[in-house]
Design goal:
The complex is a heterodimer of chains A (232) and B (222).
Chain A: H1 2-28, H2 37-45, E1 49-57, E2 61-66, E3 90-98, E4 105-115, E5 127-136, E6 140-149, H3 151-164, E7 168-175, E8 177-179, E9 186-191, E10 200-211, E11 217-227
Antiparallel strand pairs in A: 1-11, 2-3, 3-4, 4-5, 5-6, 6-8, 6-9, 7-10, 9-10, 10-11
Chain B: H1 2-22, E1 36-37, E2 43-51, E3 55-60, E4 84-92, E5 98-107, E6 119-128, E7 132-141, H2 145-156, E8 160-167, E9 169-171, E10 178-183, E11 191-204, E12 208-220
Antiparallel strand pairs in B: 1-2, 2-12, 3-4, 4-5, 5-6, 6-7, 7-9, 7-10, 8-11, 10-11, 11-12
The chains are: A alpha+beta (232), B mainly beta (222).
Amino acid sequence: MTTWLRQGLVAILGFAAGAMLVLVALYLWPFSFIDRDPIAIAALDGIKDRESFSLNITADNLLATHGGAFPFKPFPASLSVLPDPSLHDIFALVTKFRAGPGGEVIGFGTELEIAHEHSSLLRGLVMTHTLWSIVVPGRGTLHLYQVENNWRLLKRVVIPMLLTGRSFDGDFTGVNTLGPLPDYRGIVVCGTNEFAGLTGSFVEIGSLRHMQPDGTLSGVMELRIGYDPARR
Amino acid sequence: MWRTAGITALAGAIATVTALFMLPGFGGTRIPPIETVNADGSRSETLHILLPEDGIAVTHGGNVPFPAAPPGVAIFTEDALKRGFALLVRVRDAEGRAVGLAAELEVHPQGDMLAESLEWDTDWILVLPGRGILTLQQVEHSNELGPRVINPTLATGQDWVGDWTVQTTVGPGPGGRGVILGGSGEFTGSTGSFVEVDHLTRFSATMGLAGKVELQLQRKVP
């Protein structure tokens, strides 16, 4: 009997050790996209005709909600998680936009996301399809599409925060964009009026300053756009 | 004992790898579209929005005759956004199934759009899980919305109740239709046209418009 108990205990500990080994290896795994920031920013900054929009999180945001797949708290408090099962993987943000970091408010619009079907923790892919729509009164509307990967946010902020139960306070800055263009850039999809016919690429640069376990957060988001060919 | 530990450690590793490969398990909610393929190869599909039940949130610059909603949603206070309007709604297919979410973004014109028929730019962004994201552009007009529906309510305090169907789209495409700009997923490279048709049944100064909005798409796939 003692032998059986000992064997059972060894089996449990062995199983846990195997699982832990995988988790630690995954946490430390040097995925190629981990160090994408300088590549993406250099590619974007190599385009001559650039424009930047930014938003303060959450000071410039009017509302946000989702279907349950995102670790954020809908706001204002009167908004709840969308109950429809078919909307489970959707996130929606309505926000104001500034003329670059620290600039004046010049527009408004949305960030709409669908959790990406090829997301896989084993491959370090916590991805969304994201469409930014920026309305600048008097100029028109610009639509930007990207695949973003929030693996680094999960690894460096969310998991430590959940394991310790303590809020994150600091500066976590990085390019969230993973694609679909080479060099980790999103794409200028289309636009209206002044933005009609423009093509190019962009990167989303997030600077997270504070995050609480309940999903409350603050920081700055920049959408750095390169128009190629340049505007006339 | 070491053999047991080794075997179970391997089992633990394999189980964890399998779970991590499967998680987080996004993207299993595609609902096939209800659409008709036309003789020219384009696809006709109508998406429906029931108001107020499909409304999620609305905000604006304070120049719209109903409040931002739900309570607590801020309005645009900056001068640059005074004429802005943003609506977030659930979208249904022809069978009434919730198939996605949409944002309507508008910049209203200078002047009193309730006193006369004015035109303004509107963008629709449709997020349809499993299919992609689709962007639409149209010019809308206020038509008789002010004189027929809203102004009597504002003057009397009584809700307007009726049955009025109006195509709000007047451009910018040929035939007074809106244009499909493109998008992502299966909408990448899509072109075509659409119209917005509103069936209005009630207006309340506190709750806004009630009825049904139809987005009638005629989409060309690349």
